[in-house]
Amino acid sequence: MADYLINGPISPELIASRISLRENRKDTGGHSVFLGQVRGDIIDGKEVEAIEYSAYNQMVNTEAERMISEIRNAYNDVLDVDLLHSVGIVKTGQISLFVMVSAGHRDHAIKACSQFVEMLKKRLPVWKKELFADDSHRWTENR
User: Could you tell me the residue range of the domain that residue 13 belongs to?
Assistant: First the structure.
């Protein structure tokens, strides 16, 4: 079983390395990539400076594997689904989620990627605590 969690933000170098793993496949016609970035939302007059993500690793891995299987069953053209989600503190402007779906054709890659991201937001057991400059925080739910 793969490990889908990474401590801290997801670096551009790591994203590039994950994408480059697929460059020599001859059966792939399209890749769809989604990057989730921490926003500096203003909440009750306070700006979010970072999000602290926490998760139960084994539950994340089990549920991610289940969702990947569902995507592969729904889109028979999907060849690979790659997922990384941050845990720990990720500052505004940094990347906290990386998803890449590779398929034989672009339409399945795009549709499957979009559906997979929606599934993650609803089902992946990752919790978010928004951190503010005044050292206050609030727990939030995925929408």
Answer: 5-140
